[in-house]
Amino acid sequence: MKRLKSYLNRGRTEWTDERGVALVMTMLILLMLTFIGMATISTSSTELSLSANYRRSREAFHAASAAIEYALLDNRNFVVPATGPGTLTVAGGFPGDVDLMEGDTTATGSVTFLGSGPPPAGSKMGMDWEANYFAIDTTGKGSLGSTDQQELAMDKIVPAPTGG
Q1: Which residues lie across from 136 on neighbouring strands?
Q2: Is the CB of residue 103 less than 8 Å from the CB of residue 122?
Q3: Alpha carbons 156 and 132: distance in angstroms, whole number
């Protein structure tokens, strides 16, 4: 029996020396915290890139939207050319010479006359009226080359020409 106890105790004494365990545990915890820190930095830099790209795309979107609004406000954009359907303005500028630049953001566009015809269904206009149909195409450019294209189809209801 004494021999069995000494055999069992001999195995314990080899493993009961705990010197250096605190150092090993500290190193493991430090290693885990380093990995967590690296993952956090990687995630935050990715989020920063995503938000910067989103901001640039929104700049381009709002520039293109502003160009459409500008085109809608200027009636000179909706004059029917004597030659029939075609582009009324060249890409790069609407009539009225307004600079559509703000910092790195620019907008260009064109208005195209598509043709004339009866007013749209539901407009409650009689035969004394006709609609001139137009397409507005715009391109907004934001910083670092981000672009957004928008198109709007619209009609302008005018008195029908009299046959005379």
Answers
A1: 111, 152
A2: no
A3: 5
pLDDT in tens, 91-115: 445 543 345 666 778 888 888 888 8
Cα torsion 138, 144, 145, 146 to 10°: value is -60
pTM, 2 dp: 0.66
CA–CA separation, 59 and 145 (whole Å): 11
Q: What is the DSSP string of 43-60?
A: HHHHHHHHHHHHHHHHHH
**CA angle 78–82–83, rounded 5-degree value:** 105
Contacts of 116 (CB under 8 A, 6+ apart): 80, 130, 131, 132, 133
Query: What would the two tokens of residue 3 be?
Result: 């021999």
Q: How many CB atoms are closer than 10 A to CB 140?
A: 27
- Residue bearing tokens 């015809």: 117
Q: How far is residue 96 CA from its own chain's centroid?
A: 28
For tokens 């820190």, what's the residue?
37
Q: Which residues of the chain have pLDDT under 50?
A: 89-92, 95-98, 164
